[in-house]
Design goal:
homotrimer; 6-stranded mixed β-sheet; 29% strand; 261 residues
Chain lengths: 261, 261, 261
Amino acid sequence: MAIITLTTDFGLKDNYVGVMKGVILGIDPGAVIVDLAHDAPAHDPAAAAFVLFTAKDYFPEGTIHVAVVDPGVGSDRAILVVRSEGRVYIAPDNGALSYIVEECPGCEIREATNRDLMLPEISRTFHGRDVMAPIAAHLGKGTPFSEVGPEIGDIIRLPSWHAEGGPDEIVGRVTYVDRFGNLITNIRAADAEAMAKTGLSITAAHVFLLGLKNSYSEVKPGQWAAIIGSSGFLEIARYMEKADHPPTLTLGTQVVLKRMA
Amino acid sequence: MAIITLTTDFGLKDNYVGVMKGVILGIDPGAVIVDLAHDAPAHDPAAAAFVLFTAKDYFPEGTIHVAVVDPGVGSDRAILVVRSEGRVYIAPDNGALSYIVEECPGCEIREATNRDLMLPEISRTFHGRDVMAPIAAHLGKGTPFSEVGPEIGDIIRLPSWHAEGGPDEIVGRVTYVDRFGNLITNIRAADAEAMAKTGLSITAAHVFLLGLKNSYSEVKPGQWAAIIGSSGFLEIARYMEKADHPPTLTLGTQVVLKRMA
Amino acid sequence: MAIITLTTDFGLKDNYVGVMKGVILGIDPGAVIVDLAHDAPAHDPAAAAFVLFTAKDYFPEGTIHVAVVDPGVGSDRAILVVRSEGRVYIAPDNGALSYIVEECPGCEIREATNRDLMLPEISRTFHGRDVMAPIAAHLGKGTPFSEVGPEIGDIIRLPSWHAEGGPDEIVGRVTYVDRFGNLITNIRAADAEAMAKTGLSITAAHVFLLGLKNSYSEVKPGQWAAIIGSSGFLEIARYMEKADHPPTLTLGTQVVLKRMA
């Protein structure tokens, strides 16, 4: 039984996600379909890239991840199918697979061109249903990976995924804001923890923090804290409140770590 | 394994949808349950009707669709069970199955009366859980369709589902607004495309468009476009923005197509 | 195949719920995972307690319920694993299992301490993924209940779950507001119905009602009604409108029933 995950910006108001599941089950009745996230900001491949990157290691080998954030649907952008560490990723070539590919220099990248793996009729506005869902189902049912289409060289990359700097100063930014308003940065846990050993200051807009906390609840409700988040990145959070309110701290806000002497 | 889909106006804040799944799995542990849509406008059978109608062809034969948008729960409205093209539909008699039945003059319509297929205790306010979910599970497990109850003649119909007009002018309306704010009309793709061959104008409130676009991305962000949507109907969209803002264009807005000389 | 339900305050914007499912399927590929509710108010164990309590009887024996509303994550609060009436409940010790335990004086309460049933690496902020999901999966796959950890005596209780009073007057409160704005109280159906036999008045803030209605639709749109809700408690509702608007009637509002002479 193949596990197929779905990440979209469709929300759950409409039947778009459900219809993709119908297509998958019509091809592979034994597929186990998991919703990864559907309320990502519309038309934002970077959010989908983050969602995929931070989820992948928690799914077993063989899992097939489909990400449909696709503002270019109907244009000539390619549909990518990537194999990395025993997992498969399917998404439009718009940056959604950028972080995955960045971390696996040797991974196999193909463009989906095999018409037999798609629905007989392909609409102009819903390739999640007509192209990506059926490819996922066919792969889940056993179609060899190499049959999806030819290997291609490079893909569209999102800018500046990695924080910059060295052992004394790191300059990163907020790359994701979660439902709780926690501000997740692109600063790796290991880098922040190494710096924290000798003392650490964190500056993000008007917020200035010293050191890392071990849990949200080490501070009082409403207070700010810097913490190693569950995704393996530094997070800035306000206990029991949304950190992104007021909105001076939000997606893209610069976050600077400095080692203290 | 039966596929059972759920369409409700319950949202996902409460446990109502989850409890229906518990009831189904208690009767048919092998059921594959798919959420079709749960954030439909509360108390609006027309939205559920649209959701079902545009989803049905993407699910395999044997699928059982349950739609619980039920403002009349506890009154004496009937629960309908309809069989059409190898699929089964279960919903209150309030218009939710109206479009399905309109397209299948010969389909089999029954009223659910067989008490053995329902939960032992039936509440006054949640027939999705106590009546519709267990019937779906029993049918999925193999109970013959004819045992749900007697055939009935007609059902409640929603008004004016079809656009009106001929080859030179079609008058339709916006029948659904999706999460992206795309305005989906009741004008069939084939009718709009036939008219587009010789040139076409589209008028909807203050929006005047010439011709159809092939994809959202053929226009610039913020610009309007008329497009054949993935559901098989004409859509009016604003690329990367919500078409229903400002709200002069919304559910029910008249849309007029004219063939150009 | 084990049924595992998930109740969280994570919403569906992020991948937190999906990642928990990945962890479960990695351990128990045959698990049937059901979303019970994910949009509970953030950081509110009482809402999770209500969601679990009113759902449990609709799931088959053997079901494992996981509730992750966990503002204290990373502190030294325990993770509870409770067995009651053939079902298992897993949640932080913050009141989320309070109503379940209150109704089963003899149920078995253990603290999760068996490190082998958790993920190899445990983050400080996401024990739903690292602790609770893997325990649920291991139990679903057959690990004996007693292996999760030692029995413990008592747990944290939420205040005043039961309405107070006798046959002539009951004083309760609104304990849950659902998506429709229905105000669900902690007054048991049987108590309200017994009182209604000889006539009954209901006072809640500015709303004064006489007697119970049989269904929402017995009153006109916008009118108030008191009704026995599907969860087995007295509800105050406004037909086709939200009862919690204006917000004088909301979570915690006192509701007084009086028997009429």
